[in-house]
Design a protein that fits this description.
Chains A, B: GO terms for molecular function: aspartate-tRNA ligase activity; ATP binding; nucleic acid binding. Chains A, B: This is Aspartyl-tRNA synthetase 2, mitochondrial. Chains A, B: InterPro entries: Aa-tRNA-synt_II, aa-tRNA-synth_II, aa-tRNA-synth_II/BPL/LPL, Asp-tRNA-ligase_1, Asp-tRNA-ligase_1_N, Asp/Asn-tRNA-synth_IIb, AspRS_core, GAD-like_sf. Chains A, B: Keywords: Aminoacyl-tRNA synthetase, ATP-binding, Ligase, Nucleotide-binding, Protein biosynthesis. Chains A, B: It comes from Pongo abelii. The structure is a homodimer of 593-residue chains. Chain A has 593 residues and is of the alpha+beta class. Among the domains of chain A are: 151 residues, Nucleic acid-binding proteins (OB fold (Dihydrolipoamide Acetyltransferase, E2P), Beta Barrel), CATH 2.40.50.140; 83 residues, no CATH class. Helices cover 29% and strands 21% of the residues of chain A. Chain A has an 8-stranded mixed β-sheet with strand order 6-9-10-19-18-17-14-11, with helices on both faces. In chain A, strand 2 and strand 3 form a beta hairpin. In chain A, helix 2 packs parallel to helix 6 and helix 12 packs antiparallel against helix 13. The first copy, chain A, starts with a helix and ends with a helix. The N terminus and C terminus of chain A are likely disordered. Chains A and B meet through helix 5, helix 6, strand 6, strand 7 and strand 8 of A and helix 5, helix 6, strand 6, strand 7 and strand 8 of B. Strand 21 of chain A pairs antiparallel with strand 21 of chain B.
Chain lengths: 593, 593
């Protein structure tokens, strides 16, 4: 196998040659992902008929006999064609002499996007014809033999990045869309980053990768869980929203350090930019505190961060939930820019302006402001008008100022101010969340702010028995550029405390969780963990507009697979073994009459 | 962090210190899994309160102040206790002096399997009291402080490997069963082996780890697929039996080399040693032939093979399907021992023995035999009788001789002959399977021997149009010690051929696969792949009696989770959003009246 050019690049240390703001070039970005002084470049041509990938050929290969396999990207006047594989593009000269007529015919007749195999010699391009924008731009292939491996029929759209397609069309022909540079880059970056996370967790820190079931029991109040009918009449499995119970049980089982790249399921009906199945980096540790988990995750992201991005700086800043709400009007602040919310009540303490006087006279009444730097310079009258309307539309929502801040940032950016640098990744821990929230439907009752296994803040345990509403938790969220990309907590390991919270404070039916409560009785170690939303994280890292761009075969926002027409009808006889019948909405009406 | 003892062991090259036939000792086997000159030992005590694991302490730690966390394994006369964590056992001296009364009380009062944290000094055991059978047997801990982290209530069974429990009890209290040495070893070996497979595929050979959906469309004839009702009346997702379609579509999408540790689902009702969800190492490559896939897999198993087993020797031998049937009477021969089936027709060509004459006079009639070496010495009269009965019971089943061979091997082993060395791993490729088989319910029609995407053998393509029954395929199975642990094939990449096989030969409704057929039209590269059954493989590697022993939370053979009582009933109002109703068997009867 030949890969001297890869290796030489590796040792020349050409990491991060291209910033995301630069026009992407086939092969360059993906190769840069792999470049690091600690990593060996994989053998991409082992076990197969090709000797090299299209994208790896350089001047150092001159004179070598190579066999390449790829797709015809483009052909010019029957003189040359550009061959593409996952690694890049290479120019192939179509032979014009009579003796090579059959080779010429194969290469000239094959439609664009046909798959061909060519063998020939790597030669220099004629002087002046080098293409410095193309990584393989110094060389071309003088073909000796060619074989058409598969012809391509007329395509529904051109496989060129500059050809814009609707997302529905892209999803319908996902196997063609995957040939685009951006999708190749996104999926390979995802694979690389997850691999490095595994190395960090498994090889450096002794975590055990353990698979947990996805056919499980319905959790109390699990209204968003998909059901799976079993062959026992009326009995169902449920697809869990996370391996929460299992990972805690693994700690009780003494596994000490667990992780899993876990498939999770949530049936939220139609929600934009959500997926019915999604993936989380799921982690749990014994004998750990909040600081331990935070350091672990900081190291994890630093270790796995792609080479073509600026390195991650650790430790990440920390902010309390209360501070985040007061300063940014949200529990997931975008800390790439300022424009914080400032309490200016004191300025107006003696004001005669009526509506401010009104506000300040109320208990806890405050006047708050956001200062937009050079706002007067950038914002136009209609911008101010739209801000005023936005405020009016969201009046009385406590998150108004947070939303207003983001709205103002959007406006400033449309006016050309760069507030949120796309190459900047601003991580933030948000901590000290409340343990409980008043139930929406009955504010006198409590519900868990996150989930009922979250441990109370050590300073607030006494409040559980006096003013539980005031108790803070040991929950922590990880925020990146204003997006929640992870959350976790130290868990309750004391069975009595867990029972008190479930039964007395939350008034849950503890029977459905009896196995977990019992497990806590049998020597459960103190433990805690976290889950990172992998799809969202990769989406932010790649700067993709939607998580659908970092998933090979995503569902549409209605939960459909547009390529295969999923979900689909099932003949009634195939429902019989599961003892279910379809009750169409009209059937309900009929039976109600 | 202290791990000099790990490192020194690593560089002293203590790999494979213990054979599986030896009595397992806590810590030793797991540590040996990690020992290899190429691998760094993980930091097991990073981010947590302990300074060391219980199992890692040696004479080299003498004098060090350590903090340990673990479970009380055992206590003797209030003088010492043995503390356990995942890494092993260590002896802790309970202080007897008045000033340490509170420490003594904690350590003496805590029930066995309680979780404690102790800090103290590593000291030598008094001369003569060393325990050479215990990896930490030269030292003990002189405790200064102790904390009870969680007390343990009375256990349903003792956490000791020699205490035999029923499997139902083990599954009901799985979180306790996981504390056993064997389960810790099995799950950690699994994690390690999968990690090494990922390194081989991803880092050495450029495979891309791609997640494919598990909520998908029902495949034609997919009678064993679980259904998942959607919120659209009468529309269902299906949990696929494998990512077969997706991996082929990824090749059409130019991903070149795909792998996934893929969760798969199969609803087979109650089947011993099967699981409704299981895991396969799923692989697909472009531009590859059968030899390429075989070399890849041989390298994969060699690279990922545990250090405490004998190394894997490659290449694996290959046998045709026809030869396997003729010589071993099965398509998954156990090649650890001989006793092959021999055709002795010629010996009896002129026989006067009636039943042999009868057999030989029929078309293709043969007389075959198995020679049991020293059978007369080992087998008793009642053994011969049981073989005769077995033969009579299975008469006229073509696999009779293959089963008889295994039956004889079982008998010989009960008589003390070691035929199948438990430390021997005998891999075998079985190739040249038939492409089609006659349908069971209608032998004049054909069905795929494996699946309809399998490419025909290059020499047999012409037979598809004349005698399809005789066509061999490019399918290959990987067999280990008589168990099929993997299977794959070169796929059809030509749309016309795929249509001909699906529509004309198999008479399938091609509409359900129209997306795949269309994909083949748009420049699908030649491709092939394989899937290894991970649960079965790890079961064989660890020598476990059941695949349930290598899965953290397995289902019982009836598909139940005995810990949480799954599957379970669901209130009717939670079925409404999915437009389904339960139709109990009695309901059917009533409506039939």
């Amino acid at each position: 196998m030949y890969f001297p050019s890869w290796l030489s690049q590796l040792y020349r240390g050409l990491s991060r040659p291209i910033r995301r703001t630069t026009q992407p070039i086939w092969g360059s970005l993906y190769r840069s992902l792999l470049q690091s002084s600690q990593r060996r470049i994989p053998e991409f041509s082992s076990f197969v008929v090709r000797t090299n990938t299209c994208g790896e050929l350089r001047s150092s290969h001159l004179g070598q006999e190579v066999t390449l396999c790829g797709w015809i990207q483009y052909r010019r006047q029957n003189t040359f064609l550009v061959l593409r594989d996952f690694d890049g593009l290479v120019q192939v000269i179509i032979p014009q002499d009579e003796s090579a007529a059959s080779v010429k015919k194969i290469l000239c007749d094959a439609p664009v996007e046909s798959v061909v195999q060519v063998s020939g010699t790597v030669i220099s391009r004629p002087a002046g014809q080098e293409n410095p924008k193309m990584p393989t731009g110094e060389i071309e292939i003088k073909v000796k033999t060619a074989e058409l491996l598969n012809a391509c029929k007329k395509l529904p759209f051109e496989i060129k990045d500059f050809v814009k397609k609707t997302e529905a069309l892209r999803l319908q022909y996902r196997y063609l869309d995957l040939r685009s540079f951006q999708m190749q880059y996104n999926l390979r970056l995802r694979s690389q980053m997850v691999m490095k996370m595994r190395e960090y967790l498994c090889n450096l820190h002794g975590f055990v990768d353990i698979e947990t079931p996805t056919l499980f029991k319905r959790t109390p109040g699990g209204a968003k869980e998909f059901l799976v009918p079993s062959r026992e009449p009326g009995k169902f499995y449920s697809l869990p929203q996370s391996p929460q119970q299992f990972k805690q049980l693994l700690m009780v089982g003494g596994l000490d350090r667990y992780f899993q790249v876990a498939r999770c399921y949530r049936d939220e009906g139609s929600r934009p930019d959500r997926q019915p199945e999604f993936t989380q980096i799921d982690i749990e540790m014994s004998f750990v505190d909040q600081t331990g988990i935070q350091s672990l995750i900081e190291g994890l992201l630093q270790y796995s961060w792609p080479n073509d991005k600026d390195p991650v700086v650790v430790p990440f800043p920390t902010m309390t939930f209360a501070e985040a709400l007061a300063t940014y009007g949200t529990d997931k602040p975008d800390t790439r820019f300022g424009m914080k919310i400032i309490d200016i009540s004191d300025v107006f303490r003696n004001t005669e302006i009526g509506f401010l006087q009104d506000a300040l006279s109320k208990p806890h009444g405050t006047v708050k402001a956001i200062c937009i730097p050079e706002g007067a310079k950038y914002l136009k009258r209609k911008d101010i008008e739209s801000i005023r309307k936005f405020a009016a539309d969201h009046f009385n929502q406590c998150s108004l100022l947070g939303k207003l801040r983001l709205e103002c940032a959007d406006l400033l950016e449309t006016r050309g101010v760069v507030l949120r640098d796309p190459t900047l990744f601003s991580f933030l821990w948000v901590v000290d969340f409340p343990l409980f929230l008043p139930k929406e439907e009955n504010p006198r009752e409590l519900e868990s702010a996150h989930h009922p296994f979250t441990a109370p803040h050590p300073s607030d345990i006494h409040l559980l028995y006096t003013e539980p509403k005031k108790a803070r938790s040991q929950h922590y969220d990880l925020v990146l550029n204003g997006n929640e990309i992870g959350g976790g907590s130290i868990r309750i390991h004391n069975a009595e405390l867990q029972r008190y919270i479930l039964a007395t404070l939350l008034k849950e039916d503890v029977k459905m969780l009896s196995h977990l409560l019992q497990a806590l009785d049998y020597g459960a170690p103190p433990h805690g963990g976290i889950a990172l939303g992998l799809d969202r994280l990769i989406c932010l890292v790649t700067g993709s507009p939607s998580i659908r761009d970092v998933i090979a075969f995503p569902k549409s926002f209605r939960g459909h697979d547009l390529m295969s027409n999923t979900p689909d009808s099932v003949p009634p006889e195939e429902l019989k073994p599961y003892h279910i019948q379809v009750s169409r909405p009209t059937d309900f009406k009929v039976s109600a009459h």
